[in-house]
Amino acid sequence: MSFLDLDERLVELAGKIDLVYSPLADVKVFPADVDVTLVEGAITNSENEEMARLIRKNSRIVIAFGDCATTGNVTAMRNSVPLADVQKRSYIDLADKNPRIPDDHINLAQLLTTAHPLHEMIKIDAWLHGCPPTADEIWFALTELLEGRMPVLPPQYMKYG
Amino acid sequence: MPVVTFSIDGEQYSATEGENILEIARDHKIHIPTLCFLDGLSTLGACRLCLVEIEGTPKLFPACTTKPTEGMVIRTNTDRLKKYRKMIVEMLASEGNHQCAVCIVNGHCELQDLAYEVGLDHVRFPYLYPDKSLDATHKDFVMDRNRCVLCTRCVRVCHEVEAAHVWDIAGRGINCEIIADMNQPWGTSPSCTSCGKCVRVCPTGALFEKGAAVGEMHKERGFVKFIVNARKKREWVRVAPEDE
Amino acid sequence: MTIEDLRECAEKEQARQAQFTHRILYCSSAGCVSSGCDAVKAGLRKAIDELGLSKKCEMIGTGCLGLCGEGPLVFVQTDRTLYQHVDEKSARRIVEEHIGQGKRVEDYAVDLNDAFFASQKKIVLENMGRINAESIEEYIASEGYEALAKALTEMSPEDVIAEVRKSGLRGRGGAGYPTGLKWDIVRKGVADQKYIVCNADEGDPGAFMDRSVLEGDPHRVLEGMALAGYAVGATQGFVYARAEYPLAIDRLKTAIKQAERFGILGNRIFESGFNFRIDIRIGAGAFVCGEETALLRSVMGRRGRPKVRPPYPSEKGLWDKPTVINNVETFANIAPIIREGSAWFAGIGTPKSTGTKVFALAGKINRTGLVEVPMGIPLRKIIFDIGGGTPEGTEFKAAQTGGPSGGCIPKEHLDLPVDYESLPTVGSIMGSGGMIVMDSTSDMVDVAKYFMEFCMDESCGKCVPCRVGTRHIHGMLDKIVRGEATEVDFEFLKETCVMVKETSLCGLGQSAPNPVLSTIRFFEQEYTSKLISAHEFNGTGLSPLSGAKES
Fold this sequence. Notes:
The complex is a heterotrimer.
Chain A: H1 9-14, E1 34-40, E2 43-45, H2 46-58, E3 59-65, H3 67-71, H4 83-93, E4 111-116, E5 126-128, H5 135-146
Parallel strand pairs in A: 1-3, 3-5
Antiparallel strand pairs in A: 2-4
Chain B: E1 3-8, E2 11-16, H1 21-27, E3 51-54, E4 60-62, E5 73-75, H2 79-95, H3 110-117, E6 134-135, E7 141-144, H4 153-161, E8 167-170, E9 177-180, H5 197-201, E10 207-209, H6 223-233
Parallel strand pairs in B: 1-5
Antiparallel strand pairs in B: 1-2, 3-4, 3-5, 6-7, 7-10, 8-9
Chain C: H1 3-18, E1 22-27, H2 30-34, H3 37-50, E2 57-62, E3 74-76, E4 81-83, H4 88-101, E5 109-110, H5 115-118, H6 136-141, H7 146-154, H8 157-167, H9 179-188, E6 195-200, H10 209-216, H11 218-232, E7 236-242, H12 246-261, E8 277-283, H13 292-299, E9 323-327, H14 328-340, H15 342-346, E10 356-363, E11 369-374, H16 379-386, E12 396-401, E13 407-410, H17 422-425, E14 434-439, H18 444-458, H19 464-481, H20 487-503, H21 507-511, H22 514-528
Parallel strand pairs in C: 1-2, 6-7, 6-9, 7-8, 10-14
Antiparallel strand pairs in C: 1-3, 3-4, 4-5, 10-11, 12-13, 12-14
Helix pairs in contact in C: 3-4, 7-11, 7-14, 8-9, 8-11, 10-11, 10-12, 11-14, 18-19, 18-22, 19-20, 20-22
């Protein structure tokens, strides 16, 4: 959503790029031959992992977007607790009705033992921090990319949390 | 007092014998990153962030405990030092459970500042996600060991300035932890005077006041030097926070 | 006690020993205790009594006889016969046949002309197999405390320091700092009180030199400490011994009491103005307390954490007073140097590394045990001549010196002289004397991982590189062993090792990566053969963490 904070700069951007896939766009399959993909969120389940690998395969540049993608952040807070305890707490102890740990792995993604920042699973080319990243930070990275440079954030754009 | 002349990063300086490299560098606005160091407390040389190079020896020396000698050639910002400082911050980040987004000192945290300074875009070491405890038994304060970087400022301020020695270290290596008295809940500590000095010197959100929300907790750390100077030198000069 | 009293005591004891035609010594060091020397002792006693030989034959417990892997050991001093693998039954045969009938029991006898004995040179261990470890009279009869008497009556403190300096003795704890130089700094320090500390916190896995010296000849260490005290002007000494050495501590306590009773420790020693006392401090089992600044803090009752040097203990040690801190073996060398003269000592070993070094041989070697060799001896001689090489059917691969702080020396460097200068050229150190031998069945990555696990567990946690770095290095080695690491991980491992080595606060952290770096240097192929390609992971440089697939 913070992407939308780019405001009027979105218009300028729209003239320079083709948005081929996004959670907001109605595209079912991740396309091939993508120049840049910004990936947000940590890898916490089997579907995330599969998707991350597909993105990596089909993208020239992959950028970790936001604190969860770079550090695991809040999604990784469960990592110091055994997975079974996490599931028991969420699906049984706190359940209003039908306490049951979801085990239908045909239709549901499987939770990984721990949540991983993206770079622990796939090769990442650059990192944008912040929860969420600021519009200026995003703009800096995008303009660098459009100029053909890999963005390396100067300290003023670095902001965890 | 004898004076020694030496160079830091190619510039000539002189200082009275006995001053350490860090003090001198700060007097001359040369920035050397630190974490365990806090003006007014004893020096440890433990965080290894202030390591500097001295010509003629391959060894690195902590600026906070090393005193220059005549003709010494000191470098504070070489590529090797920058690389090592980044790795130290990476190690600190991987060691605890640091989630800035939900931290009470977000935006006012020395570990965050260090991360920005060394350009920490990601941590190459695997995160260790230790199973650490949180002690909220004290009536005013909380100790969250997940965010502790083991700088021992709290241990030192409590022992050296407040003279209560509530805090100490238990365990070895990666399992080290700050404990209250005989490893008991903070709220039951008979030696704690609830002065709050430890909370104010803590560089991260490991020690904080109850009632503050995410990002709300500001820490003013210059008071230690004020107290120590007042006691030792009878000087009652308060340093403005921005000059710290 | 005067020097005349000392001589009289020595003569009386020599006369007492001369009454016996035979002296049977059983090894009473911890190695032989664990292989059952108590039963042997009882067996010998019973046989001597039953055969009515108690007037003719004396039986005593002595210090380590060296062949620790072949214990229990029994030594007939009179005609120099060593028996190995002795049990109650063979003990009786030894008494019956050897003492009673004058016939060696060939079934158990060891050939003393073997290279194991012939290649050794004993200074520190000279009293092992010669005296009763618990008798001050026997120590005195064997020239004990003569050096102290000589120093106090004939030499000035400066003379003592000059002798030690001229001898070229260097610290046997591993770093090799010249002992005389250290003493000189403490001597010149101005303070109302100075201290002598003996580091007996031997913590390297596989090392048992200091323990053996304390168990077998505790008075030698006390004498060395008293000489140091006289030389630098200290009146109080501490022995810091690890709690895991109960026998050594017992013998040390006995020795201190005996020396006090004889007036050799206490006030006005040998009628001079020199007063010296020794107390024992028992460590709680932290490896880092072998590091001198951490040890001193522990002696003072504080948490054993190292502190930044300078100031060195010789300037500001115990309670900020000038303090000599030396290793057990260093102190054990002092009395012979004063007694025999520095020129004699300097003539042994190499010009820069004088004297001898005690090594504890362990690992994949035929003769596990305690040996003392002149400095500069080729490694090959220690391992093959003295140690008898690796077990049959295997090939020598590497020797680890310096324990978890040292490095592996591969077979192409077997002819390297063992001294302070040569070992660092191949990335190892002299260390305190542990020598672990690895053969073709040993996996070097596993070896490195073992030592790293040790350092990780023993890190005090004070400085970041050692506290966190050792943990991550261990994790990376584990990942390599599991076959999940890529070449990117391997490069990062090397980078991290160098970083921890260069940035850690004390010797523990600075040397912790040595086993990894030295095994990479000589056995890189054992690492690379376990790596997987980074490209197998969708172009990622890092492989998935273990357990990432299951839920």
